[in-house]
Amino acid sequence: MKLLTFFLISLLPLLSLARFNNRLSRQQSDSRRGNVARGTTYMLQTQHQGQNFFDDWDFFTGPDPTNGNVQYESQANAQDLAYVQPDGTAVLKVDNQSYVPPGGNRRSVRITSKETYNGGLFIADFWQFATGQTVWPAFWTVGPSWPNGGEIDIVEYVNTATVNQYTLHTGTGGNCQLNPNANSTYRSDGGSQPQSYLGTTLGTQCMSSNGNNAGCAVSDFQGSAGSPFNAGGGGVFAMLWDNSQISLWRFDRNQIPQDIQNGNPNPDGWGVPMAYWSSQSCDIANAFQDHSIVINISICGDWAGSAYNGGGSCSDAVSNAANYNNAQTKINYISVYQKA
User: Fold this and answer.
1) Are 255 and 166 in contact (CB under 8 A)?
2) What single string gives the DSSP state of each residue in 194-205?
3) Which domain holds residue 87?
């Protein structure tokens, strides 16, 4: 994955917490309204949950494309790193037991869905997401010939960061950009919402070219990732992807809409999304095709390595197994719905 550098993250403006709390409250209030009209019905296509969670995934075992100090294990060799707890929770983790020489590669996992998608309503419930120095966790979708076919980063951050980042990456097809002022069905509050999403714009050019692979990104609020997210019991990330939009929402554990809990999701009632890309400024159908779902935990590499601030070098810190005590991603379920 090709991402914004830590330097760009560090330049985020100091934002008014009251302003964003008001926005988030409005989003959460909208999501709980019982009288929202349903425009589209969605039918469950795929669900990954419980003791059979790993049946429909491939385990990636090649060199890390992001140049990390990581050894991705096969399913046979990852019995201690990828498993399902008795309560049905699926766990992906980094080895926190073995000694690794400074600069060596530590064992981890990267799984890719066998099924591919050209859109849909994706809902993922995480109890916990990996965090810790040198750690680079992600939940994303990607086409077969990066950057052509596109990439959608739904959950991604590095080290001990507490802010999630949503990013699109595209090839030359689609002429894809992020337009914060794009019209959308979510701008329905008489203009008090200044843009079509709640998050903070980090970059507007989605296309990867000439070594610039930052993508077009939106950052979430403080507490949307890492330790604060985990302390709150995790939550749900949802993505609606069709030819007109890619919209992303996050719901804290105590704010998950009832329609999601009932298995009858209704995005029309979820309020303003955290991130939104419109077909007005991106040919979504051309830019995003044949995506697999990917979940992985990398170590150091292009982003976590350059952003590492834990003392010494990132690659040397790989030898400290204690850095990985919280490098666990715990999943309740991942569901994909399609329009009925």
Assistant:
1) no
2) -SSSSSEE---B
3) 49-339
Please list the alpha-helical segments (H only) found in the chain.
6-10, 17-32, 226-231, 258-261, 284-287, 301-307, 314-317
Task: Give the span between the Cα atoms of 286 and 189, in whole angstroms.
Answer: 31
Q: Which two three-digit tokens encode residue 110?
A: 């990267």
The answer to whether the pTM exceeds 0.70 is yes
Q: How many structural domains compose the chain?
A: 1
Q: Any idea what the CATH number is for the domain that residue 310 is in?
A: 2.60.120.200
Q: What strands, in cross-sheet order, belong to the sheet with 216-219?
A: 57-59, 110-113, 292-299, 135-142, 151-156, 165-169, 216-219, 200-201
Q: Is residue 107 part of a domain?
A: yes
Q: Which residues are catalytic?
A: 151, 156
Find tokens 């159908």 and name the residue.
285
SS3 317: helix
**Spatial distance between the Cα atoms of 296 and 66, rounded to a whole number of angstroms:** 12
Contact 86, 122 (CB under 8 A): no
- Other beta carbons within 10 angstroms of residue 287's beta carbon come to 27
Residue 117 lies in a domain: yes
How many helical (H) and strand (E) elements, i.e. helices and strands, does the chain have? 7, 18
Question: What are the angstrom distances between the C-alpha of 148 and each of 133, 144, 203, 206, 212?
Answer: 32, 8, 19, 12, 14
| pLDDT tens track for 287-339 | 999 999 999 999 999 999 999 999 999 999 999 999 999 999 999 999 999 99
- Check: CB of residue 323 under 8 Å from CB of residue 317: yes
In a domain, 10, yes or no: no
Q: State how far the Cα of 286 lies from the Cα of 172, in Å rounded to an integer.
A: 10
Q: Is residue 147 part of a domain?
A: yes
